[in-house]
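Structure tokens please, single chain.
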Amino acid sequence: MILNIEDNTNIINTLEIENAPKGEITRYWLQIVRDGMGVPIHIPIIVARGLEDGKVVGITAAVHGNELNGIPVIQRLFKEVNITEIKGAIVGVPIVNVPSLLRKKRRFIDGTDLNHIMPGKPNGTVSQVYAWRIVNRIIGQFNYLIDLHTASNGRINSYYIRADMEDETVKKMAMLQNADIIVHNPPNDGTLRGTANAMKIPAITLEVGNPNTFQKGMIRDGLTGIHNMLGYFGFSDSEVEIEDTGTVLCKKSYWIYTDTGGILTVFPKVTDFVKKGEVIASIRNIFGDLIKEYESPEDGIVIGKSVSPINQTGGRVLHLGVVK
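Here you go.
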């Protein structure tokens, strides 16, 4: 027997949270655009609307098509929430960038990074229209936003947060995540988080691990942090679990790049502290001869790093966080 779990999934053109039934978890397929054959492309959305009216928190994932860890975080969240305890509404968008996820690619179908062109344009390019409709048909209804990401191809990440720590609401959202690292990063770069901020929606970016895979530990950590926020801000009766893990606060961060090509080895692990002048990586030629060693330009912590040995000139080495 085949169980058709899509029978009760509504197909919609615009998300209207006030139309979701109270006291229920409702699934939707939101028609966002049409493909080259005129076939609708749908985005999956889950709405848990409490019996009591209140604010709306949105959790998004897979803005990049190869960033998968956020998908099971959202799936498990809606399996675990007790709808009778919900106040307001929780909205999950497990896949934002559907075309790229199906192609197993990071970028959108026109080669654009969707998270660099937000809020898009209503009459722009293929990617701009898609981005604009995401923002205007979904994100604009949120009062808070948590956007789940991972590292890109050939790189790995710690469990870290990007947030504007000068905004008290955003700061609290970030601190509730029990992350390894929080980077103070005011959003002004065309990201979904930056667009939400411009719309007066407090938002944080959660970097939950590595691309193209599901990591149980990262998924569990991300889920705990979201439950913490739901409990603290009154969306649910979830107990807030603050771990004394010593989250490291960084006043800024940046990538270190190579100035030559070759076989790259990066020595420190993610979350390792490094000292100014410490050798952090080496480049060898194809014969195995050492070409160059790279030193840390200042004291800091390793947020992420390259794990791809083949590194062309200008390739990434290490994402360094500068501690406050």
